[in-house]
Amino acid sequence: MNKWIELAGGLVLLIGLILIGWASSVYSWTFLGKDFNLLHSAWIFLKGGIFWLLGGISVILIILGITDLKE
User: Would you say the pTM of this structure is higher than 0.85?
Assistant: First the structure.
């Protein structure tokens, strides 16, 4: 695939996601009484990812420290 088509397609998708996330937070998107605030859901997912990333890094550092103590 052409690199420019890939770049343009990625930018269109990214801008579309940003606009959909913004629109779902500004306007009241409800379906069967459920609120679809996608921006809030994305923020919670990002915070959870950062939490587990830092937890994984800390476990790796502990394991590396234990292996250094054995030598």
Answer: no
Q: Residue 11 is encoded by which pair of tokens?
A: 């930018």
- Give the side-chain half-sphere CA count within 13 A for 61: 6
Q: 26 with 38: CB under 8 angstroms?
A: no
Q: From the centroid of its chain, how far is CA 36?
A: 17
Cα 45 to chain centroid distance, Å, stands at 6
Distances from the Cα of 52 to the Cα of 23, 43, 58, 60, angstroms: 29, 14, 10, 12
pLDDT (tens digit per residue) in 13-70: 888 888 887 787 777 766 776 677 777 788 888 899 999 999 899 989 888 888 888 7
